Amino acid sequence: MKPGARVQAAVEIIEAVERFHQPAGHTLKEWGRAHRFAGSGDRAAIGNLVYDVLRCRSSIAWAMGDEAPRALVLGALAFAWGMTGEEIATWCDGSEHTAEPLSEAESNAIASPKNGAPDWVRGDYPEWMAPHFTRVFGARAADEGAGLSRRAPIDLRANTLKTNRDKLLESLKKTSPIPTPYSPVGVRIAPREGASKSPHVEAESAHGRGHFEVQDEGSQLAALLTGARTGQQVVDLCAGSGGKTLALAAAMGNKGQIHAYDANKHRLRPIFERLKRAGARNVQVLNGGDEAALSGLAAKMDVVVIDAPCSGTGVWRRRPDAKWRLSSQAIEERQAEQTSVLELGVLLVKAGGRLVYITCSVLAEENSDQIEAFLERHPGFRAIPYGEVWREAIGSEPPASADGRDDSLLLSPASHGTDGFFIAVLEMKKDA
Predict the structure, then answer these.
(1) Could you give the CA distance from residue 163 to residue 242 in angstroms, rounded to a whole number?
(2) How many Å apart are CA 295 and CA 276, to the nearest integer?
(3) Which end of the chain, N or C, is more open, meaning fewer C-beta atoms within 10 Å of its C-beta?
(4) CA 116, CA 190: separation in Å to the nearest integer?
(5) Which parts of the chain sit beneath pLDDT 70?
């Protein structure tokens, strides 16, 4: 496909996303089925452009003075891909199947974008969320939002049951990997720019042999900060497809016992293949959706890990269309679910044990508010300052939390280069 045809395809896909209110991934798949002549490079370029529009739609619309799909796509080429108006004009020449030539207004907007945007525009988050971001980040709200609007790297976790980070770096050297700055088992592949296609790392033989899992550094750190150790009894209460379960198994050296459970048995289904590939042998998968399966674990667990259902605001750079669909009602629903799973988890912790609460959200309502309310309901627990936990589990000096707190840790793209993750470690007093 000509570059101009890719531009026109992106415009049509954005139009469809807006018209039918479907996730971008679904719309891109439908477009691919209907245009089978498009090669993998074409599909990657179009997908990159569509997702960059969705990541930065507010700031692009403001700069262009227009929020129509064509203006958004042209703005993404200019402000996300760094193309000049002259370069864009060579792509958009109006020939068959390509985008129409730039109008005078479009050329002027690209050359002289509108300035003076408010924080929620510069941070590319919905206007109604401005008070939420300001509450957490204060004067850095726009910068933190912008961090959530950039392309994410590909982060991998070296599976120490089978290899180590140095060997993994060597085996993947053609992708130019680097060590992650915080996780001692993490490997990072920088995001590609413009139309460039990211490497398909799961096609690598090292993945098939179970030497690594794709896992954001923030998620790796969350698993490490649980403090799960060799020989302990651990329950992963919201295990999903098993990403943190696998990380816990490696941290525990396959010794002790991990009980993997999820309220949704369909989310849990992929865990079996992943456990086999990783060589994780200390995991017992419980019947998903059946809380009775947890009854034998009551008051016996050294560590209860709750990767709670949440709004997903921390992973907007990977799922950018989700931020424009999020509603205050959805946040309230997630809060109710979080409270419920905390109350389930507290029943499983033994005296002196830990309950570790994790979300991929940056919102205080789902994070620090939940912990404060939990501690009021359960005075037999205390929050362990995250710095203590970090030094114990990782052995280095911890970074500052993105929200300025010291009892819990908020990771973010702008502050740490990770997805947005919240981690709080709560300990049941031995005399509780």
Answers:
(1) 19
(2) 26
(3) C
(4) 31
(5) 432
Distance CA 211, CA 233 (A): 25
Rounded Cα gap, residues 216 and 226, in angstroms: 16
pLDDT at 431: 79
pLDDT (0 to 100) of residue 10: 97
Task: Tally Cβ neighbours within 10 Å of residue 12.
Answer: 18
Q: How far is Cα 66 from Cα 298, in angstroms, rounded to an integer? A: 57
Residues 6+ apart with CB under 8 A from 273: none
DSSP string, 323-357: HHH--HHHHHHHHHHHHHHHHHHHTTEEEEEEEEE
Q: Which of 226, 240, 236, 251 is nearest to 159 (CA)?
A: 251
The answer to whether the CB of 87 falls within 8 A of the CB of 102 is no
pLDDT digits (tens, 9 = 90+) for 400-427: 999 999 999 999 999 999 999 999 999 9
Q: 178 - beta bridge partners? A: 188
422, 370 Cβ separation under 8 angstroms:
no
Which structure tokens are listed for 19?
A: 């018209």
Cα gap 96→93, rounded to integer Å: 9
**Measured on CA atoms in the order 129, 132, 401, 335, is the torsion positive or negative?**
negative
Distance CA 251, CA 221 (A): 11
Q: Report helix, strand or coil for 157.
A: strand
Residue 272 corresponds to which amino acid? F
Q: How many CB atoms lie within 10 A of CB 134?
A: 16
H or E segment and range at residue 266: helix 265-268
- For position 286, what pLDDT does the model report? 96
Amino acid letter, residue 320: P
Contact 53, 72 (CB under 8 A): yes
Residue 97's identity, in one-letter code, is H
Question: Is the distance from CB of 355 to CB of 346 less than 8 angstroms?
Answer: yes
Q: Is the dihedral of CA 50, 54, 60, 62 positive or negative?
A: positive
Question: Domains of the chain by range and CATH?
Answer: 3-117 (no CATH), 226-428 (3.40.50.150)
Which contacts qualify for 198-203: CB closer than 8 Å, 24 or more apart?
198/44, 198/154, 199/154, 199/175, 201/154, 201/156, 201/172, 201/175
Q: Is the pTM of this model over 0.85?
A: yes
Neighbours of 396 (CB within 10 A): 11
- Other CB atoms within a 10 A radius of the CB of residue 369 amount to 13
101: tokens are 């030539």
Q: How far is CA 35 from CA 74, 217, 219, in A?
A: 22, 36, 36
CA atoms within 13 A of residue 340's CA, in its CB half-sphere: 11
